[in-house]
């Protein structure tokens, strides 16, 4: 059975990348006030946490952005530079752990400022109309604009705390130019739109982390399954940011020393049309891209040349972790297919 990080969340949270993720380079560039909690905290990729006894010089430490109580007219807002220019499909305004200090309402605007951060002359478009917020909850909303944007502005009415702002979108990449130039890119990278669409088990970690930049910082920074106690193996299906021909595959078991997979194999296909739930069943019959390869502890494994057995573009990959275990990062280096 496939799982998502939150099975009650809208489809856009599973189909697109959080472009407000600090790990990808998103930065909170301005806030009218962040007296109680720094604006950068709401861009962290990990879920917000709560420490009952943690305080700092300004009061209770909160994992998110929190302004002081407003005693004048107006409201607070924060401006976020997204990881890269993108189309936005939906947002999650998360008030986790904010119970007596959440804003009663919020809205979101976006702008396109590719040459720097917006100034007073920037043109902002409303993508999420003002909506009510509740205590310690996810608030999902579809984005109502088809434009390409580089920044968002989160308005809270009138003040309070937001644990996380997640802006789900598709990176705006000129794939046709890259295809013409024959440029090699990581087709699976988050910043290029790669995303995990289904998996058999993710007991210890979020599968999407395998496409994050850099190497894992610890054993929790990767995809790790529980110990398999039945025949078969664990698996993960990735949709590439853009279909392409694979030149090189990198599988990194960084920090996984007593729990790395014994072997890994990869299957792939060019999937056209609707990517519905049947993709899980269909993936069992995809072509072999990388035959079973022995894994080692805490090691970068690189495969290219004759080891890659499929030529021609693929759009989806099934990574088989045999029989189970942890993988920190996966890189799929190749040349984008012509759109």
TrEMBL record:
Catalysed conversion reaction: allantoate + H2O = (S)-ureidoglycolate + urea
EC number: 3.5.3.4
Pathway membership: Nitrogen metabolism; (S)-allantoin degradation; (S)-ureidoglycolate from allantoate (aminidohydrolase route): step 1/1
Enzyme class: hydrolase
Domain Allantoicase: 25-171, 193-336
Gene Ontology terms for molecular function: allantoicase activity
Keywords: Hydrolase, Purine metabolism
Source organism superkingdom: Bacteria
InterPro entries reported for this sequence: Allantoicase, Allantoicase_dom, Galactose-bd-like_sf
UniProt key word Hydrolase: yes
Any one of the GO BP annotations: allantoin catabolic process
UniProt similarity note: Belongs to the allantoicase family.
PANTHER family in the record: ALLANTOICASE, INACTIVE ALLANTOICASE-RELATED
Protein's UniProt name: Probable allantoicase
Species of origin: Thalassospira mesophila
High-level lineage: Bacteria, Pseudomonadati, Pseudomonadota, Alphaproteobacteria, Rhodospirillales
């Amino acid at each position: 059975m496939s799982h998502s990080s939150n099975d009650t969340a809208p489809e856009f949270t599973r189909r697109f990348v959080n472009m407000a993720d600090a790990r990808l380079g998103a930065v909170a560039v301005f806030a009218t006030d962040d007296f109680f909690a720094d604006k950068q905290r709401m861009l962290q990729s990990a879920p917000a946490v709560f420490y009952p006894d943690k305080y700092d010089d300004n009061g209770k430490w909160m994992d998110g952005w929190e302004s002081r109580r407003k005693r004048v007219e107006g409201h607070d807002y924060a401006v976020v530079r997204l990881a890269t220019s993108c189309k936005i499909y939906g947002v999650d305004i998360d008030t986790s752990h904010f119970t007596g200090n959440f804003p009663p309402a919020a809205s979101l605007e976006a702008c396109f400022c590719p040459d720097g951060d917006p100034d007073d002359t920037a043109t902002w478009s409303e993508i999420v109309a003002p909506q009510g917020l509740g205590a310690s909850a996810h608030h999902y909303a579809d984005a109502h604009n088809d434009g390409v944007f580089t920044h968002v502005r989160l308005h809270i009415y009138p003040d309070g705390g937001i644990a996380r702002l997640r802006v789900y979108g598709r990176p705006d990449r000129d794939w046709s130019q890259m295809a013409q130039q024959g440029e090699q890119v990581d087709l699976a990278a988050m910043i290029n739109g790669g995303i995990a669409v289904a998996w058999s088990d993710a007991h210890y970690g979020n599968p999407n982390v395998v496409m994050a930049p850099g190497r894992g910082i610890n054993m929790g920074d990767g995809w790790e399954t529980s110990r398999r106690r039945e025949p078969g193996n664990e698996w993960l299906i990735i949709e590439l940011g853009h279909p392409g021909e694979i030149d090189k595959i990198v599988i990194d078991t960084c920090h996984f020393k007593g729990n790395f997979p014994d072997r890994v194999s990869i299957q792939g296909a060019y999937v056209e049309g609707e990517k519905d739930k049947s993709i899980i069943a269909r993936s069992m019959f995809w072509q072999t891209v990388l035959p079973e390869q022995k894994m080692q502890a805490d090691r970068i494994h690189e495969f290219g040349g004759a080891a890659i057995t499929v030529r021609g573009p693929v759009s989806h990959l099934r990574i088989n972790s045999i029989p189970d275990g942890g993988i920190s990062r996966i890189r799929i280096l190749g040349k984008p297919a012509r759109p």
